[in-house]
Amino acid sequence: MNKLMKPTFSTAAAAASVLSGWLLAQDVSAAASAPASANAPLSWRLGPGQYRQTIVEVFGPSISITGRFDPEYRQDGLLTIGARTASISASGVERYDELAENIAAQVVDERNRDTLIPCKPASATASDEACARQFLSAAGRLLYRRALTEEEIAASVKLAGIVSQAKHDFYAGLAGALGNMLLSPNFLYVYKTFEPDPEQNGKLRLDGYSKASVLSFFLWNAPPDDALLSAAENGEIHTKKGLRRQVDRMLASPSLENGVRAFFSDMLGFSEFETLAKDPMFFPRFTPRVIDQAQEQTLRTIVDLLVVRQGDYRDLFTTPDTFLTRSLAALYGIPIVDTTDNGQPERWIPYSFPADDPRAGILSHASFVALHSPSGRSSPTDRGKALREYLLCQAVPSPPADVSFAVVQDTNHPVYRTARERLGAHATDAACSGCHKITDPIGLALENFDSAGGFRTTENGAQIDTSGELNGTKFDGPVGLAKALRSDPALTACVATRAVAYASGRTPRRGDAELKRIQAEFADNRYNFVELLREVALSDALFSVPPQATQLVTAR
Amino acid sequence: MKSGRQITRRRLLRGMLAGSAVTVGLPLLDCVLNTNGTAFASTGAPLPARFATWYWPLGLGEDDWTPKATGVNYTLPPQMAPLKPLQKKMNFFTGGQVFLDGQSNNVHFTGLQGLMTGKVANSREYLGSIDALISEVIGKGSRFRSIEVACAGSPRDCWSARPDSGVQPAEISPVALYSRVFGAEFKDPNAAEFTPDPEVMLKKSVLSGITEERQALMKRLGPADREKLDNYFTSLRELEQKLEVQLKKPEPLPSCSIPKPLPMDKEPAVTLSMDAVERADLFAGLLAHALACGQTNVVNLAISRPQSGLRKDGDATAHHTHTHEEQIDPKLGYQPVCRWFTDNYMNALARFVSRLDGIKEGDRTLLDSMVVFAFTDHGAPRLHSVRNYPIITFGNGGGRIKTGMHIGRPGDQVTRVGLTIQQAMGVQTSSWGVGSNRVTSPISEVLA
């Protein structure tokens, strides 16, 4: 354990902490258990964002998608990893079926058919095989992310014909066949499949379509476009030069923003916003609108710094620059001028916090301090745990059983009035103090932010002490924490690890040579996040062939 | 940002070459032509058994709620006072525990894992809960094999898990549940006329097109992906079965009445215990009607997640925190705020069960044909104890179990309650559970 502690915990204070060592060991074991066994699933269930984006890409933004999806599950810190083992429940199939019927009906609707269907039937009240074939094979290629086989096209066209005849409506037939595609596992799951590698005798490679999907969902959170599918079909994607050309093109595309947003929404746990609410009695400014805007504020800040300005990832945690709306500014207690009329959607206004402001970086956003707080009050422990888990990729153990939590958060306690005092009292319990030492000194530095993200300097009439510590570095207040975090090597190592895991579907082992190389390149590129994406997209980690692939191809 | 790709798509759609007309014979519509489902005479078969689970968070509190006496002559503890009118139709099981077998107690989870699936594991594995084993037997002939609902806004608050595919997502919106069960696809079992809907017939045939894709897809996949695909097709099969049920004339059910449509949902996320209970009441009404109308035989309701963050109005501290921090009032002998939560849930449970008991089926009630299984995450929540779980069941399952008793078995496997209920509901098994949680005999005194 001590041997393992050295790389991340270089300070004497941390090295002396048995618990920190245990924490790291937890992290290592979590990573070690994650890599695919020979039987790990390779496919993943299309996430809600990927589903929506696919419909936008294939049929345009006018198609509305109403309905809910099967819930997602986080594994090894990412929903993307959880999607590898996600099945589709019976009620999930019902929902996907409703979505499919609804989308298909909109596509063939009179308002849309002229733009979305590339041909006109000989008669609108009968089947038309040629037109159905033209539409279904083209739509199918985009939805299944590969060209359909002749058998698949024929079956789909036949189905459309039968429904058209039964309903005396050509478009009803198309809708029936399209609905089936949208409910098919070929659409709802993204599959990785393999083929013999002509360059290396006896070896396999990921086939072109699979490579295209992996790249596209990684960088755009969207299905491959026509150019990428063509690169898969003509073999360009298998050459070093061709692959580089595609990755360059994808990184230069406006769709990259969508991919970067999806990655950080996943890594920062924004799906938890779905069930986030605060007590309006205590936090009247934390409205449902603010909840949506809180995520958007952080994502805008990220895209602006990392994509538009190609900045240093570490600066996300210290940057004074962000974007605010009227509602968010009210929550934060900042006077901003917004000339939008009442009733109009609020505008996003660029805003820079003054140099001495306690707010800087994304830790001070409501998307962190409010997301990781219970509905009634703040929790330094929850925030400290979230920072370790989401931003440093460290696992914090669950509370042990059979321990009393007396006094910790009794906000009416006559003696222990602030969270710090209550946690201090709790820390005398040996069974608890170990874990709280690694979470609370982080969270306490953020206590100037209440459960909803508003600013405060006192709690229950007592001054809040925001001194804290991160892995041996002492500091005061949220800005001090942000600076300490910025210089923690685990911060950049974590985002690189998450990027590899997000792209490949597998969490790499700590000592993984390819991961180390990617992390080193990331440092050499001054922690430019877009360059990190490029390194990962071109790395061997992405298209690796697992052991079980051999039997698959031979069986075929 | 997406405009460039949009153009590509249009160009692509317009530019596709029309393929040559090749048809492959697929029997897609064979059942459309087969219209023999026009009339189903009543078989006179007995009403099916029904089953419900009802989860409330954080037990009954710290004080001593275990009745001294066992058998029929016992006094209900004050924590369960709202259930007093139902005592004769109820069994109260105490003393059962989950054995960890060296695994760590992942608080608010491991105990439920053992109690509901019979298996304790260090992982978050949660497969094959009691209700799913039961729905395997009594759920398959109905429109929905089971219905899950959660009252605090998260579809993940659910303890129902199929043996193969894991936790079922719960419905969080009463309005959505209404339209799912009583919307356009609902067939009133008491309607005078029944005509199979040609749209449903067509839909069923269309769906068979997806099943046709199965073999080709299977060949391309590894074992783990094939397993997931199997799960998908199992779920698809349930959708097909749902359509099949809609094509058959339903048995008349005099006790079935259609509930009134619900007004708009409130905000999905819930932070107050009272709001969760209000939603539980809305769900209870819909579930009772769904059971009485033969739409499902198995329902599962969860108030919240186990480590409940629900609060009392005006109090910033959540129930879970109170269970650990609130002092036991020396005069009262219990934690007063925690008791407020428990009372709230026991009242809601009483309303749920009373609603079922208020629906007449012949000379008996809906409750008399079923078993309601009410359970919680910890015996003593302050200590995260996995001992002395309070389990409350209601109904005699159509004469399959005796009621009115307190069954106190201190130190016994809590899984024995699960096995007993499974056997009563017709699951053909003589044992249940893994390791020290394995039991091979039921609690015979409650089996009729």
Write a short abstract of this structure.
The complex is a heterodimer of chains A (556) and B (448). Chain A has 556 residues and is mainly α. Helices cover 52% and strands 5% of the residues of chain A.
Structural commentary:
Chain A has helices at residues 2-5, 12-16, 18-33, 48-59, 79-85, 90-108, 113-116, 129-144, 150-167, 170-183, 185-188, 208-220, 226-233, 240-252, 256-267, 288-308, 326-332, 366-369, 380-391, 419-426, 430-444, 477-486, 489-504, 513-524, 529-538, 549-555; strands at residues 44-45, 189-190, 194-196, 204-206, 321-324, 349-352, 458-459, 462-463, 467-470, 473-476. Chain A has 556 residues and is mainly alpha-helical. Among the domains of chain A are: 47-189, no CATH class; 280-302 and 320-486, no CATH class. The longest helix of chain A has 21 residues, at 288-308. In chain A, α14 (240-252) packs antiparallel against α25 (529-538), α15 (256-267) crosses α16 (288-308) and α23 crosses α25. In chain A, β7 and β8 (462-463) form a beta hairpin. In chain A, strands 1-2 form a two-stranded antiparallel ribbon. A two-stranded antiparallel ribbon of chain A has the order 3-4. In chain A, strands 5-6 form a two-stranded antiparallel ribbon. Chain A is globular, with a radius of gyration of 26 Å. Chain A starts with a helix and ends with a helix. Chain B is α/β, with parallel strands linked by helices and 448 residues long. Chain B has two domains: 44-186 and 257-446, 3-Layer(aba) Sandwich (Alkaline Phosphatase, subunit A); 195-248. Helix content of chain B is 33%, strand content 10%. In chain B, the strands form three sheets. Chain B has a seven-stranded mixed sheet with strand order 3-6-1-9-10-2-11, sandwiched between helices. In chain B, β7 (360-361) and β8 (364-365) form a beta hairpin. In chain B, α4 runs parallel beside α12 and α5 packs parallel to α9 (273-292). The longest helix of chain B has 25 residues, at 223-247. The interface between A and B is large, with 111 and 97 residues.
